[in-house]
Amino acid sequence: MIKAIKGTNDILPEEMLNWNFLTETVKEQMKFFNYKEIRTPIFEHTALFSRGIGEGTDIVSKEMYSFTDRSENNVTLKPEMTASVVRAFIEHSLGKKANLNKLFYISPMFRQERPQAGRLRQFHQFGVEAIGNHNPSLDAEVIQVAYEILTNIGLKEIEVKINSLGLPEERESFTYKLKEFLIDKKDGLSEDSKNRLENNVLRIIDSKDRGDQQLIKNAPSILDFLGSESLEHFEKVKDLLTIAKIPFSVEPKLVRGLDYYTHTTFEITSSKVGSQSALCGGGRYNLLIEQLGGASTPAVGFAAGIERILLACKAEEAFTPNEDELDIYIVCLDKELENKVFEFASFFRKNNFRIEFDHSSKSVKAQMREANRLNAKYVLFVGGEEYEKGQAQFKNMTTSEQEFVDLDKLDDIVSLISKKN
Ligand code: AMP
């Protein structure tokens, strides 16, 4: 038997209830915050990601699903959305159509990581990219959207951590000092961090390796390298988060993996999902658009992992989605009347009712079992003596009340149910 690829998940109908609850909350909040949905292709030219995310990052150096297609194009299944959204922003000149483009997405992503709980090879993210404005109010707003979504689905055990990476030159002097600090401790670093010393020093700071963490305990802090403009920006973000009543902590070691961040970075973590605790991460990326060939444009965004958020929801029992239910299950009492049942079902469906009926000539008892299993609110019995009289029994499954309805007046059923709903 051929099984699903390691690190990919089937999302079965019962799990979809949770998914839909989350994605509907996402869409609702995006409306409140006035973000518009964007969809981009599943695959892009590999160069977009290597240029946009950075050669020195884990994503580009070891996790991308890249391949050469039959026309010798180098393509990659998207490992994240920011580069794709920015490409679309440039390609369609969205910056000329509006000063500020507030976009959101919900999409699958692909990274060849070592699968474990909360870490998949095909996973799903929702996120936002607000492109065109440098104001700290947008940094705060982006953090607020993420926070509102997570708290609206019922998560309580979450923490917002923020940091600032300042301007490129500030980050550069910090990186220089950091390298100086680490160079004579090189032998004590993990293999990954030894490599990063050459190509992505900043990443050593958020290494999960215990030994590395010990070594960087007394490393210089990026916050000591920020100039007045960066500090002012950061202070404003903090003030606005306080106004929005969002509890947060400043975490100078939060540098995040991607090359394109400037100023604010943030992460929202859950204490309930084990080692893969980051539910959401993002920040400001004022340099990326120019780096990808567009006009210099400030931007800020985040990405949140749907599977991980749902794991946190499960651990916290954050919500119970409404079970799917049917309006009417039509029981067929007489095989000859199958076409009639089909006709009634069509009528009710056209009137926006959720309808099911038996497709395999089951016994009445079995049909009733099915009606119960599907949480039918009403059952319509078609057949028998009543049918001869042009009527059918109509049963309210909650109260067990039964009444006769005229089959030439199905509109009465429609108004009866509509009234009770
Ligand atoms: P990133 O794009 O790496 O900043 O990730 C943003 C969010 O996506 C993380 O906080 C996770 O919730 C989620 N995420 C990232 N990588 C994976 C993965 N391999 N499997 C599941 N979720 C992931």
Quick tags:
421 residues, alpha+beta, BirA Bifunctional Protein, domain 2, Rossmann fold, 2 domains, 8-stranded mixed sheet, 5-stranded mixed sheet, 17 helices, binds adenosine monophosphate
Question: What do these coordinates show?
Answer:
This protein is α+β, with helices and mostly antiparallel strands and 421 residues long. The chain folds into two domains: 13-166 and 226-316, Bira Bifunctional Protein, Domain 2 (BirA Bifunctional Protein, domain 2, 2-Layer Sandwich); 326-420, Anticodon-binding domain (Rossmann fold). Helix content is 40%, strand content 22%. The protein has helices spanning 13-32, 46-53, 58-63, 82-91, 94-97, 136-152, 168-183, 191-199, 201-204, 210-215, 228-243, 288-291, 306-316, 338-350, 364-373, 384-388, 410-420, and strands at residues 36-37, 43-45, 66-68, 74-77, 101-110, 122-131, 158-164, 248-250, 262-270, 278-284, 299-305, 326-332, 355-357, 376-382, 391-396, 402-406. Helix 1 (13-32) runs antiparallel to helix 6 (136-152) and helix 2 packs across helix 4. It is elongated. The model has no long low-confidence stretch (mean pLDDT 94). Bound molecules: adenosine monophosphate (AMP). Adenosine monophosphate is lined by residues 80, 111, 113, 118-120, 123, 125, 278-281, 303-305, 307-308.
Summarize this entry quickly.
This protein is an alpha+beta fold and 421 residues long. The chain has helices at 13-32, 46-53, 58-63, 82-91, 94-97, 136-152, 168-183, 191-199, 201-204, 210-215, 228-243, 288-291, 306-316, 338-350, 364-373, 384-388, 410-420, and strands at residues 36-37, 43-45, 66-68, 74-77, 101-110, 122-131, 158-164, 248-250, 262-270, 278-284, 299-305, 326-332, 355-357, 376-382, 391-396, 402-406.
